[in-house]
Design goal:
The protein has 144 residues and is of the alpha/beta class. The chain has helices at 4-11, 13-16, 38-55, 103-123, and strands spanning 24-26, 60-64, 84-91, 129-136.
Length: 144
């Protein structure tokens, strides 16, 4: 993972920070639990958040969940951040849970299980918003 200052220099956030079309910025895409310790990710988010706020007090700061971990691990950052979002990426194509589900079973899982998780995150978010930035559905059956 790049250092926060290096990311700012590479993406040039400060150049675009006052443009009215800038609604938000995602700090990192899909950090994975097996490679990035949670404390390291939170420290990165805190530093990056401060840099974003140095240039724009109101744009949304989007934090990708730590993939393959519990997204509620980030909700304590809601106490420190304003206008911040947890970006959820749901991949039903991976893992044995979904391997033999048909399309309707995938939809039911999303509607029941994922919805409950999002409701739980919203309820305990400390002000963070939740956003499903990616999802997929897999099925062993072909659609014609």
């Amino acid at each position: 993972m790049y250092g926060v200052e290096e990311v700012n220099a590479k993406c040039g956030f400060c150049r675009y920070s006052q443009r009215p079309v800038l609604y938000g910025i995602e700090l990192v895409n899909e950090p994975q639990a097996r490679y990035v310790p949670l404390d390291t990710l939170k420290d990165y988010y805190r530093k990056a958040y401060k840099i974003v706020r140095k240039y724009n007090a109101n744009t949304y700061v989007v934090m990708s969940e730590l993939l393959w971990d519990d997204p509620s691990n980030l909700v304590d950052l809601g106490k420190e951040f304003k206008n911040a979002i947890i970006d959820l990426h749901y991949y039903n194509a991976f893992g044995s849970t979904f391997a033999n589900m048909n399309i309707q079973q995938n939809i039911d899982f999303i509607y029941n299980e994922r919805r409950q998780e999002i409701e739980r995150l919203n309820k305990n978010s400390n002000g963070l918003l939740t956003f499903v930035g990616m999802y997929d559905v897999t099925t062993p059956h072909h659609i014609h």
